[in-house]
Amino acid sequence: MGMIELTSADGHIFDAYEAVGENAHAGIVVVQEIFGVNPHIRSVVDAYASEGYHVVAPAMFDRVERNVELDYTAEGVEAGKRFRGGLENSDSLSDIAAAVEHVASSGPVGVVGYCFGGSMAWLAAGLPSVDAAVGYYGGQIREFMNQAPTAPIMLHFGELDHSIPLEDVDAIRAGYPAIDAFVYEGAGHGFSCDARGSFDSDAADLARTRTLEFFKSELSG
User: Fold this and answer.
1) What is the 3-state secondary structure (H, E, C) of 50-111?
2) What is the pLDDT of residues 159-215, one digit of tens each?
3) Residue 134: helix, strand or coil by DSSP?
4) Residue 221: predicted pLDDT
5) Angle 33-144-170 (CA atoms, 0-180°, nearest 5)?
6) Could you give the number of structural domains in the chain?
7) What is the rounded distance in angstroms from the CA atom of residue 26 to the CA atom of residue 70?
8) Range of the domain at 130
9) For 1-55, how does the pLDDT look when each residue is reduced to its tens digit (9 = 90+)?
10) Which CATH number do you get for residue 137?
């Protein structure tokens, strides 16, 4: 495990954190929150690798500033929003596609994203090289609803997430009734992140179990 360099189709070179599980049978691309590829995201990569996957987390903010690792503070949120605002979705998808290509040597590829990454996972589910996707509390998914996923996708939301109204979840469910869009009672934004005050261990464990079962089914080859 460690940092590697990847290259997007437009020649952009960016960092990524990689971990390869024993006898990896498929790949997973982890798309970061607005806090960069920080210690938490690296721990997420390691956890998926321990399940037998070849996993990589691209440093999405390298197009704006390199080596971004932010804390879960008000200052970190504001900085992360600025970095996010400097990205074009097309460029972010290009970086995800390069990460997908990298892990595809191990087999079928899934994408899982959190927060900002949750919205990007929805868009990544439209890439031809992605076999499955999971989005955690992606606030822009309703905005992206007209860009239909072509790969199977699962979504996770917190009931008390003030940044994503339940009306948005209802709209997604109505537009795509075949998609599993789970809402976790009593959970807020970032409920899966054990470095945040909003961490909800019960919701996080259930969402992780569902995600692993989904990837096991969809990435079996």
Assistant:
1) CCCEEEEEECHHHHCCCCCECCCCHHHHHHHHHHHHCCCHHHHHHHHHHHHHHHHHHCCEEE
2) 999 999 999 999 999 999 999 999 999 999 999 999 999 999 999 999 999 999 999
3) strand
4) 63
5) 95
6) 1
7) 29
8) 2-218
9) 799 999 999 999 999 999 999 999 999 999 999 999 999 999 999 999 999 999 9
10) 3.40.50.1820
Q: In degrees rounded to 5, what are phi and psi of residue 197?
A: -65, -20
Closest CA to 103 of 33, 52, 63: 52
Residue 6 is encoded by which pair of tokens? Answer: 């990847």
- Give the side-chain half-sphere CA count within 13 A for 141: 39
Beta bridge partners of 69: 36
Query: Which phi-psi region, left, alpha or beta, contains residue 88 (left: φ > 0; alpha: ψ -120 to 50)?
Result: beta
Taking the model in full, what pTM does it have? Answer: 0.97
Q: Of 2, 24, 16, 203, which is closest to residue 109 (Cα–Cα)?
A: 24
Using DSSP bridges, classify how beta strands 132-136 and 53-58 pair: parallel, antiparallel or unpaired.
unpaired
